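Hi, here's the filled form for the chain we discussed.

Project: internal
Contact: R.S.
Residues: 72
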Amino acid sequence: MAAESEARLVDIETKLAYLEDTVLALNDVVTQQQKQIDQLETKIRRLVERVQQIATLAETAAPAANEKPPHY
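And the returned structure, exactly as it came back:
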């Protein structure tokens, strides 16, 4: 009976060790993905700002483009 309990305890400890390793590996992946998400959000924010700048420039330039030149 003691050998059976000992084998069961070793089995549980082995499974726990594998689970701990899996949790650490998953944590590394999640951490890496969060860094990537943060970088992408920063890039998107910059792109949105740039598009807004371009749109503002286009709006200010649009009336001049629609006017007829003085020689008409």
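Let me know if anything looks off before we file it.
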